Design the sequence.
């Protein structure tokens, strides 16, 4: 058995193409300070069931993610899996603490079941929950869920901040900044963090073939719908040299040569970004195995991201860039505080096309101020960009816009928003014609029109299921139907 001070596990169900970075960072951080640590990816363990028992995998995925169980008698299947994986973990490890990475709120059901099971097997093991998923969703989002778990002694602690310092404080003193929602201080020097340790994972089992990398935390912009500034007050970033060094070192250690940035934006600091692409372009020019990468970008026109920047971006290994375009209407984007013009977007897209770098467009259909004309402007934008289709490899239409607590939409514009029915069922008083029904209509129509043009629409199962779920809730409130909830692929549906 492997004795360790802390075992970090990843709760299902979330991304399975590559191991999540946070547990690997926690492990390397605590080991650096003299403690012992191991990691176990339950999320990946669970995903293997898809190949061996597809029916039960889908049943459990629906239950763990959405709480859906058609036959309540089948709840024992979930209990059996949780018991099995818990037994296997405790047969292999003897941890003082088990830290559960609750990546999204859709990991809550499994996490609670798992904690109860571990506690029943060994009540002396301390349970720590962390990750963005510990906060309950909705307009009144809070840590009420984990507070309740702690009061009922299902868990011992929870962390609402960056985990590295908080975990160390817990190991040292049993308390600390960010532990159980106490005040925490953001780490302002990312250079201090050691490289993520993936030594416990068989990386060849992950179909994505990528490793994650973080160059910054926070964001330089304050988009009206985004709550990132609730998590990080400041935008902090590493030097371009240190990011390149990590890529090169990790590629040599794990023989993986494709990376994905976790950053909200890679080019937030153009100085750091230019240093990074300069180093990577030089490395790739002589490397036996070229390194490539993908991640989120700010749309920048040629005044701030020059043609030389684009040339080096290509040579540095840029493979795919995600863009928060959100709307084809400047008026909508101005209200969002996106800080780029149609000309900026035209220049950015043209440069990506010239250098054959793929783009993903991330869109919001049905923003509160979106008029019928604004919606048409979005469709017209895609008509204009048909000439760039070869590099626009997908369009993410999302589900519907949820007004998140702590965002400028929820705070600055609260006087114009009715939020009483929950984050997705708002009414924007100056634009009352944009009902929830109308938002769903536009979401479906956008998908249909873009598919006719030849674009690939990202079919995110979670987003589609969320859209169905929300519409089901809305139908129960409004007693009117639009969408056939029995079909799984909303892209094939016609609005009537």
Sequence:
């Amino acid at each position: 058995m492997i004795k360790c001070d802390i075992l970090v596990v990843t709760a299902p169900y979330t991304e399975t193409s590559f191991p999540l970075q946070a547990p690997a960072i926690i492990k390397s951080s605590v080991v650096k300070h003299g403690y012992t640590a191991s990691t176990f990816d339950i999320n990946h363990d669970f995903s293997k069931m898809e190949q061996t028992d597809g029916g039960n995998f889908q049943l459990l995925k629906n239950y763990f993610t959405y709480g859906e169980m058609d036959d309540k008698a089948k709840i024992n299947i979930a209990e059996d899996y949780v018991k099995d994986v818990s037994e296997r973990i405790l047969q292999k490890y003897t941890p003082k603490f088990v830290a559960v990475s609750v990546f999204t709120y859709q990991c809550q059901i499994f996490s609670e079941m798992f904690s109860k099971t571990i506690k029943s097997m060994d009540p002396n093991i301390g349970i720590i929950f962390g990750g963005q998923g510990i906060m309950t969703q909705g307009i009144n989002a809070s840590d009420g869920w984990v507070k309740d778990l702690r009061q009922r002694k299902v868990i011992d602690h929870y962390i609402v901040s960056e985990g590295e310092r908080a975990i160390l404080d817990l190991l040292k003193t049993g308390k600390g900044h960010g532990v159980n929602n106490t005040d925490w201080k953001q780490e302002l020097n990312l250079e201090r963090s050691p490289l993520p340790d993936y030594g416990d994972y068989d990386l060849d089992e992950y179909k994505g073939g990528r490793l994650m990398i973080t160059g910054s935390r926070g964001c330089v912009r304050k988009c009206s719908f985004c709550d990132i500034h609730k998590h990080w007050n400041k935008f902090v970033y590493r030097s371009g040299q240190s990011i390149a060094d990590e890529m090169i070192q990790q590629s040599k250690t794990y023989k993986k040569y494709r990376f994905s940035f976790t950053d909200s934006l890679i080019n937030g600091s153009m100085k750091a970004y230019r240093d990074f692409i300069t180093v990577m372009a030089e490395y790739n020019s002589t490397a036996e195995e070229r390194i490539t990468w993908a991640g989120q970008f700010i749309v920048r026109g040629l005044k701030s991201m020059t043609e030389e920047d684009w040339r080096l971006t290509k040579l540095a290994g840029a493979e795919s860039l995600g863009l928060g375009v959100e709307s084809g209407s400047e008026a909508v984007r101005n209200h969002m505080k996106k800080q780029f013009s149609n000309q900026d977007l035209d220049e950015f897209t043209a440069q990506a096309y010239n250098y054959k770098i793929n783009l993903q467009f991330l869109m919001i259909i049905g923003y509160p101020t979106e008029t019928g004309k604004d919606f048409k402007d979005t469709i017209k934008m895609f008509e204009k960009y048909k000439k760039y289709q070869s590099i626009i490899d997908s369009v993410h239409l999302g589900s519907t816009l949820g007004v998140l607590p702590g965002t400028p939409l929820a705070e600055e514009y609260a006087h114009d928003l009715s939020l009483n029915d929950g984050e997705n069922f708002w009414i924007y008083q100056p634009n009352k014609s944009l009902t929830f029904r109308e938002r769903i209509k536009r979401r479906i129509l956008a998908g249909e029109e873009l598919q006719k043009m030849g674009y690939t629409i990202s079919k995110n199962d979670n987003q589609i299921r969320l859209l169905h779920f929300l519409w089901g809730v809305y139908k129960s409130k409004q007693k009117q139907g639009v969408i056939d909830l029995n079909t799984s692929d909303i892209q094939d549906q016609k609005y009537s």
Remarks:
- The domain at 2-173 is CATH 3.40.50.280 (Rossmann fold).
